[in-house]
Amino acid sequence: MLLQEFIPFERELAAIAARSVTGDVAIYPIVETIQRDQVCHRVIAPAKISTDLQNQINRLAHTLLNGLDVVGLFGIEFFLTTSGEVLVNEIAPRTHNSGHFSLDACYTSQFEQHLRAVSGLPLGSPDLKCGGAVMVNLLGFELAENDYFAKREQLAAIPQAKVHWYGKIQSRPGRKLGHVTVLIDTEDPHTLHEEAQAIAQQIESIWYGDQLPYRHQ
Hints:
The protein is α+β, with helices and mostly antiparallel strands. The protein is built from five helices and eleven strands, in the order ββββαββααββαβββα. The chain has helices at about 50-70, 100-105, 110-120, 150-155, 190-210, and strands spanning about 10-20, 25, 30-35, 40-45, 70-80, 85-90, 130-140, 145, 160-165, 170, 175-185.
């Protein structure tokens, strides 16, 4: 039996980091993830955190990748505790759900970065090419065979929205059917975070409608 102490965390954060065959490391902007029932619902990039905390997480990511002597792309999840401590929750040796925003919001997507890392090419820039972004997973909410085309058209009509559909027809509760990323122009952390939450609620209202499986937070 394995017992783990309960961690009273305030928020969940994540870093997508790549290490090349030559040992170079590139880290994407730290993001905040909103999880419900152990499933990622939203990702806000960048997270509203201090520069000191961002630097601390970047150092942790460097230490982990160099210490493990790995090559490729990794998703690293963190707990930010109520006392301000950063704890590593999970290390995923692959492209990661918390990095999907990079497809539209960054100069180099996480998928291209992984290929660059393992093939010996120089790592690309992980920087945002916009003020920020919010990514919302499109999760199944019913047992059905449906491509939800009408809902996807509504989502695509949101300004600066990019809808990624995975081509799955069979829906079941919690199944990842696609995701939506909306680019945000503002760079002010407080304004960006508020705008991202409002956009995420708009997306989830369109997608789930009356079958929303949780209340907005």
